[in-house]
Amino acid sequence: MKVLVAPDKFKGSLTAAEAASAVAAGLADVRPSLDVRCLPVADGGDGTVDAVLAAGFRRVPVPARGPTGAPLTASYAVRGDTAVVELAEASGLYRLPGAPEPLAATSAGTGDVMAAAVAAGCRRIVLGVGGSAGTDGGAGMLTALGARLLDGAGRELPPGGAALARIAALDLSGLDLSEVDIELASDVDNPLYGPRGAAYVYGPQKGASPGDVETLDAALRHWASIAGPEFASRPGAGAAGGVGFAAMAVLDARMRPGIELLLDLLRFDAALGGASLVVTGEGSLDAQTLSGKAPAGVARAAAARGIPCVAVSGRCLVPAPDLAAAGISAAYALTDLEPDPARCLAEAAPLLRRLAHRVAADHLSP
What PANTHER family does its record include (predicted)? Predict the structure, then answer.
């Protein structure tokens, strides 16, 4: 019997690879002769680069700017001429050196990483756009790739979303990615601005006050009028503080559901061959899970092959009928073993290994 273990990360406690390893160890405790294959997954958010390393990609460290411009080392993953760039690697919230900078945080570091991948010969870039620290409409990314954002006096704008209110011209003469195919991996369908836009929906998570949100939203409206108004209302334009907009409007990027795109990169369908059971999961199984997160995508792919799928998680907030409708026949949570959330986070790996004993007992015949 073959089991494919394909979880996403358990945020705050385990990477996807660590979660997969813990589950595999627990299954082997009960069934030592079991054929277990681990294939960590991601949906385009933080952890995407780590996940694809298990599918033959190689990590490439590069210098980049963080959300406040401070230098750091980020990385992308490469296989052949395909690079996987994770926005959070350079421009994520966790990269902030101190307090949030909602008006000034930049996506320039993401552009730095993309530029390094192109310089290394990559001609396809998969850009995972989750977990950003800023709301700069992707302007920083574009400047790192050679664009110039100018005010009415011909001066280059400072970084950050608030400065976009002063843009008068976008000079793309120094930007040429015409031979590079860019795909956006995201499950966000928000437009660039407005009540469902990047500033109003995600700005507060990045430290924006109500006044900051209004400032950023107005600046994004003006930015769209310069860079491509027809793209502002497209689903996903508001992803990662508007990076989705800049990628589609200026870089001719195509957006695909993150988990769908990542499963293709991971050659997931081939990995399913011969499997009798799939185990997926993430830190919290909740309403967002069912709206396109990694476990739902894994379950959908397994169902298409007629393979049962179960999920493990830190906690489960989804009723069994809803899980079943998504293709998940059973769910197991760390809170079933340990009611204290703090201990679940601190002892996630051993608890997950114990949880896998239950999965084996319920789904793997002796």
Answer: GLYCERATE KINASE
